[in-house]
Amino acid sequence: MEYLNAFLCGGILCIIGQLLIDKTPLTPAKILVSYVTAGVILSGLGLYQHLVDWGGAGATVPLTGFGHLLAKGVKKAVAEDGFLGALTGGSTAAAGGITAAIFFGFVVALLFKPKPKS
Questions:
Q1: Membrane-spanning residues where (predicted)?
Q2: In angstroms, rounded to a whole number, what is the distance separating the alpha carbons of residues 88 and 73?
Q3: Are the CB atoms for 48 and 2 separated by under 8 Å?
């Protein structure tokens, strides 16, 4: 059942994104930023954790999950370090994922030769 929930949750988030691309004048970049912002806001309101509990990876892998991760990091850091945590918590929480993305992107760039589009 966890796989089905993850599929449904991620699928619904993708459908919303596709509808925003097709039916609104918003650019994909604005939609991506909106997804991260929505994840932060919903997490701050305490609503996104319920979605994570139900949808698992379907809620944490999309960009809304990145916003949720940032909000959780800030909340934890503020509880530990006070106001300074508001400035450092998000980057500390997301550092592992960002580092992995940069590292693996670099490795792939070394292994494969880019080809121009025809």
A1: 6-21, 33-51, 93-112
A2: 8
A3: no
Compute how many other C-beta atoms are within 10 angstroms of the C-beta atom of residue 35. 20
CA separation for the pair 110, 84 (Å, rounded): 38
Number of H helices, E strands in the chain: 6, 0
Give the whole-angstrom CA distance, residue 75 versus residue 46: 11
Encode pLDDT of 20-52 as tens digits. Answer: 999 999 999 999 999 999 999 999 999 999 999
Asked whether 77 and 92 are in contact (CB, 8 A), the reply is yes
| pLDDT tens digits along 47-80 | 999 999 999 999 998 889 999 999 999 999 999 9
Contacts of residue 62, Cβ cutoff 8 Å, sequence gap at least 6: 10, 13, 14, 35
Q: Would you list the domain boundaries of the chain?
A: 2-111
Amino acid residing at 40 = V
